[in-house]
Amino acid sequence: MNRLFLNVGNDCERLCHLIEKIASFPERWRDRVIDHLHTVDITSMQLVDRAKIWNNLRGTIYHHQKFLGSNWALPAEAVDRLCALYQKLEPKGSVYYYAWLFSFNPSLLEVTESQKCKATDFQDYSFSLSLPNDIEQDLKTKDEKIRQAQNQAVEEAYSQGGVALLLDVANYVVQPRLFGAAIAKMKKLLRLLKKNC
Q1: Tens of pLDDT along 109-131?
Q2: Is the same domain home to 162 and 147?
Q3: Measured between alpha carbons, how far is 178 from 100 in angstroms, rounded to an integer?
Q4: Are 92 and 102 in contact (CB under 8 A)?
Q5: pTM for this structure?
Q6: Cα distance between residue 57 and residue 114, in whole Å
Q7: Which residue range forms the structural domain that includes residue 110?
Q8: For the stretch 66-95, what's the b/e string if a residue is b when 16 or more beta carbons lie within 10 angstroms of its beta carbon?
Q9: In whole angstroms, how far apart are CA 145 and each of 5, 32, 119?
Q10: What is the rounded distance in angstroms from the CA atom of residue 83 to the CA atom of residue 76?
Q11: Same domain, 36 and 125
């Protein structure tokens, strides 16, 4: 394991690969991998690399939270430890903090009061094989939560850095039309535009 950690070091791509494969490690190795991830010096990382690792963690946490309790998913304790790392790496206020939301089906996580991550945009069906009676309503609810998060992100980005930050974020979004739709719903910006036109 020590040789693995030496080879991985602080390399972004290797750390992301390690995170992607974390569920395949035996428990004792998995705990050591998570320990290693917590010791990585994030202050020496470029923001773009830190954001890549953060995005990778979000996807892993979401995936394992969504299926918590299944025989292949990480146990809750491991997910909680990854959540702590996710919060530590959060690129708050940067373009990366906002841009990921404007993609197809983003993995929404909510950090609870107890500092644990909670996947918020899916319904728990206790892993039964039957579909819920009203799956269409469930999908609408999920889409609404995503739209609310996108609208909130645009408002927050505008409050943080004004139009300049919004323009920067626009360069990094995967689905520009989703970003444009959220901007179109911004009341502050619309008032500003009316006032200056």
Answers
A1: 766 555 566 665 544 433 333 34
A2: yes
A3: 11
A4: no
A5: 0.79
A6: 19
A7: 93-197
A8: ebeeeeebbeeebbbbbbbbbbebbbeebb
A9: 38, 35, 11
A10: 10
A11: no
Residue 197 sits in the same domain as residue 133 = yes
Residue 103 CB neighbours (<10 A) = 15
| pLDDT tens digits, one per residue of 130-164 | 344 455 667 778 788 889 999 999 999 998 898 89
C-alpha 87/C-alpha 115 separation (Å) is 9
CB neighbour burial string for 134-170, b if at least 16 within 10 angstroms, e if fewer: eeeebeeebeeebeebbbebbbebbeebeeebbeebb
Q: Do 79 and 65 touch, CB atoms closer than 8 A?
A: yes
Write out the two tokens for 4: 């693995």
Among 85-89, 104-108, 112-116, 165-169, name the one with the lowest average pLDDT: 112-116
Q: Are both 23 and 77 inside the same structural domain?
A: yes
Same domain (yes/no): 118, 49: no
Burial 20-54 (b: 16+ CB within 10 A, else e): eebeebeeeebebbbebbeebeeeebeeebbbbbb
